[in-house]
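Continuing the series of single-chain predictions for the mutant panel. This is the parent chain; the variants come on the following pages.
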Amino acid sequence: MTPGSMQPYALTLDKFLDHAAKWHGCAEVVTGGDGTSERVDYAVLRARANRLSGAFAALGLRRGDNLATLAWNSQAHMECWYGAVGIGVVCHTLNPRLSAAHLAGMIHQAQNRVIAVSPGLAPLVEDLVAACPTLAHVVLLGEPGADHPSPSLDGVRIWRLNELLDTHGAPMLWGDFEETVPAGLCFTSGTTGAPKGVTYTHRSNYLQTLHLLQADVIGLRASDRVLVAVPMFHANGWGLAFAGPATGARLVLPGRNQDGASLARLIDEESVTVAVGVATVWLGLIDHLERTSSDLPSLQRVILGGSSVPQALMDRIEQRLGVTVQTSWGMTELSPLGTIMPGDAPVRSSAKSGKPPIGIDLLLTDEAGVPLPEQRGQEGRLHVRGASVVERYFGAADTALDVNGWFDTGDLATIDAGGNLSISGRTKDLIKSGGEWINPGEIEAIIGALPGVALVAVVGRAHPKWGERPVLVVEARKGADLTDETLRTALKGRIASWWLPDAIIRVTAMPLAITGKIDKMRLRAEHASVHAGKEPVEVR
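Parent structure:
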């Protein structure tokens, strides 16, 4: 008997844009700019990206080479993504908010020869070219209403994107390679240590996209208009540049302007239904709406990620915007989605990050990596495995997995009886006081639930007797009457008395890392070097 068989059909990323151009050719990608927007349909975008593949090949890029992009969310950036991955070139996304020294280290590792750059970054590019001898070509990308003067560079060929297309653009065959070849390279933010490169394959990103499209995950439809406020250079752009074309949804890309007024204009003009980004972005949007007494009636869902948010902030977003918030958890190493709460979840809790989609599995262990005998209701170290989870870091000889094939996330977590994940802290954030551990995440959750708190963080401060003591850093909401006694009272009886912070520090603006998360490295540098000289206070 001869068994039947199925067609070989490599899961390569070019197929998403091919699908969009063929079946949703009139659906649009919109790029916001300085008071204006530009739009292109998927059919035209696909044609331009395919010709850009020929131009990249003419510049000497071959399968397995790394194209660097230093760019905001825009049509031109998306064209670079597909123009590269379609011919097996790896898209290496760089964060424009990093220093030139950090970026140069990443470029050296990736051996980038071509870099595509958004407007407004000329001084940074000049520093990078001076520090990175491998760079031979700079491609200047456009954005609506933005000037893009040429940087002053020696020994490097400068191209404007349309000039490059006119000179070298040519159709190329896409997807002529195995699905396991590399497609993307993204370095971790480095906010808790040295940045590490994560290599995404075509297969891993394709499967990650299918994760996103599940109904209880993000579940985009062709009728959706999606504001992508999460940067394309951060954690694989959360996969939205693939999920949008896969469903024919309109993608709305804000470019370099993510202030509240610019986002409100885009949401209103494009009738955005789904918005995706970190919580601090939506704080700016809400502040703008309150100043202008405006509303955004088209908006239905906001997807939050990056880090956990206070309950009061989640409630404020839902009430002021009239939306459903979906909390999520993920990491660069997970491509990045790990878990997400469905939009129709009956319990609206910012502390819960939902369940993993099919294709991702979770495991809680003790400090030694031994699985907890009971996986529900117990705190443990969170491990993950799946087809879109890192196996080894870029340039590393050793695997990043344990002997059983699990990736240690560095997070502490619990899983409730319903299977919903709650991140309770980072192992690196734990404070060791008198030989015992204090979990900042538990303190932050309590204080963050207070209506007058905008942002909160707890960091360890050196202490001559106890080793470390917790310090509470708070950014109050504008106009809120938030006394120290209010903060202390909220904690009394809910945490151990020796967990109570030794000091309360107020900031007008919480320092944020390049990812939009609270910058705990900076907080430690500013507030952890001087001890309060106090012993833990027993409060009854």
